[in-house]
Specification:
Length: about 400
Amino acid sequence: MNAPDPFADAAVPVEALRRQAFNLRWASQPPDVIPLTAADPDFPVAPAVREAIARQAHEGLFCYGPPEGLPAFRDACARFSEERRGCPAGPERILAVDGAAAGMAQVCRCLLQPGDEAIIFDPVDFLFQAAVEAAGGRVRRLAVDPLSGVLDLEALQGLVTPRTRLLGVCNPLNPVGRVLRQEELAVLAAFALRHDLAILNDEVWADIVFTPTVFRSLAALGPEVAARCWTVHGFSKNYGLAGLRVGCVVTPDAAACERLRRSSLADTTMSGVATLSQIAAVAALEGAEAWLAAWLAHLQRQRDRAVAELATMPGTTVRSPEGTYVLFPRVEHHGLSAEALAQRLLERQRLGVVPGSARWFGPGAEGHLRLVFSTSEAILQEGLERLRRGLEELAGEARGGDVGAAMTAER
């Protein structure tokens, strides 16, 4: 008998999500809202992960782990880096961190002094700016065309100042969905080498890449580039472990790993990753390959459905993402701010989306909305139908002159 499809409509445990899925999602919204908001799967994790957690819980021991991470975790991450990213890295270069976001922040605190500057993409996930600013740094932004995904690489030189210390690279790029090509990575790497910059290399989305696109890691361009890369990996987008708060940083060498461990305060037990979370991550890396392949196939079907639907909606232009499970369509706002449009969709259509605003992604996000498709076919279809109704209603009001009144009321 065939095993049940782990990504069938019925596999989404909506009632459990309404109790447990926070961060703008089901548990943070009224019960009639469909949240296509935070990038987190709606499906249960792979059986191998659940079984590993259950075995550890059955033993009844939850002891302190080493500050750098469990040996089995560091070994598994080193194999992952070499076999799946083409970046040889011994376990002595791996530091366990409590999620990719924490890894980004810890790298910035390790490398930046107050007043230092970092170059990041625009648009890009807000965590890049947050991590730099938490270390006392300032960001300068490299423009990315949200529809084509093209980086304005010719503008890089004009962003450098005497205080520039760091280049932030997000690949695949959230929210644009672009996977950087080797020639683009080579330009970024050469720029970092020329200006003696460290590279914060966020690859948390690198397992979510759709055929025929091929992912290449920046750190795989050669030892000279790898010696500047602090590569952040996580287990939330690929394996759904966001709530377990586990990730790793692949550092340039063993000395850099020790430096990062000290600056993270893991030696004092003031930070560090739960051992149970590391056990879950090892199980995902070593026992969930088939599950991940099925997850990716489901996501590619979801992407194709959603892009086809969005392309027919009024005032909407969409680019099919090569990676990630987020869509970033340009939408006619009819004079409303991004936040006001998102709020209107929430109130009138009971649909949650993330506004394309500077708060979330930088100034380059203007005119866009972000929505995720890491859910079931039925939930995504209902969400898209609500979006269509909302955009059609807005367009109709604009033709009738009602949107101007709405803007006045908003002010």
